[in-house]
Design a protein that fits this description.
Helix content is about 40%, strand content about 20%. The protein contains 8 helices and 9 strands. α7 runs antiparallel to α8. One of its GO terms (biological process) is thiamine biosynthetic process. InterPro entries: HMP/HMP-P_kinase_dom, PM/HMP-P_kinase-1, Ribokinase-like. Its EC number is 2.7.1.49.
């Protein structure tokens, strides 16, 4: 058993992310996903957003020292066995989060790189994207970009096939990333394929039938579900497979 997890106490997943007043994404989705697997959450709120399901109307960033204090308190209070990171918003917030993680007991970190809202509003500027790659990627067990996010992170046009996806993901290994899960929700075709790409290994495919339904927050849900399984000492591949099946079931449940 990891030394930071106390016996007979449920492991916690520390969620470092923003709120969404509509409940469609952000910490609401994160907590729902972690709770579905019988674990508890600790929270560090990075931003408060005013959102409907159609647009982001306002964003208030939390002061970086407040984010850091929330994280330190969570580590002190709870048996944190994994961390899921979502919206960070600024380069200063990224620096702060990376600093706290680097000085904390080692736990698996899953980063969902929230670069823009579903409605298209940019949530992280170019300088902050560079900071995200340099400071945070090396601390993460997994980074989970969708195809548009992968293009922004790699500085290349939107990938149109598996070869281009792998090439773009491999560019991120130069930043110290150890594993990239490229989500296929923005692709086309009858099958939605997520690709796990790791240095010097063959890509691993996670396939599911594409469901014709729109749901916000599926990226939050997937990353949090992966973190929940990592917190229970599952392997990365098993954690991803179980998380993808969880999201698929949620999509099936809302299909007309």
């Amino acid at each position: 058993m990891s030394p930071h997890v106390l016996p007979h106490v449920l492991p916690h997943v520390l969620i470092v992310a923003g709120s969404d007043s509509s409940g469609g994404a952000g910490i609401v989705r994160d907590v729902e996903a972690v709770s579905a697997f019988g674990l508890r959450c600790s929270l560090a709120i990075t931003a408060v957003t005013v959102q409907t399901h159609q647009r982001v109307e306002r964003i208030e960033q939390m002061p970086p020292d407040l984010v850091a204090d929330q994280m330190r308190a969570a580590f002190a209070a709870d048996p944190v066995a994994a961390v899921k990171i979502g919206m960070l918003g600024t380069a200063t917030a990224i620096d702060t989060v990376a600093s706290v993680l680097a000085s904390s007991l080692p736990v698996p970190v899953v980063l969902d790189p929230v670069l823009a809202s579903t409605s298209g509003r940019q949530l992280l500027d170019d300088e902050a994207i560079d900071t995200l790659k340099r400071k945070l990627f090396p601390l993460c067990a997994l980074v989970t970009p969708n195809l548009p996010e992968l293009a922004l992170l790699s500085g290349l046009p939107l990938a149109t096939g598996e070869t281009e996806i792998v090439e773009q993901a491999e560019k991120l290994f130069d930043t110290g990333a150890s594993a990239i899960l490229v989500k296929g929700g923005h692709a086309t075709g009858a099958t939605a394929t997520d690709l796990l790409i790791q240095p010097r290994r063959e890509p691993v495919r996670f396939d599911a039938s594409r469901i014709a339904v729109a749901m916000r927050g599926t990226g939050c849900m997937l990353a949090s579900a992966i973190a929940a399984h990592l917190a229970q000492y599952e392997t990365l591949e098993i954690s991803i497979g179980k998380a993808k099946r969880h999201v698929f079931a949620k999509l099936l449940a809302v299909r007309p």
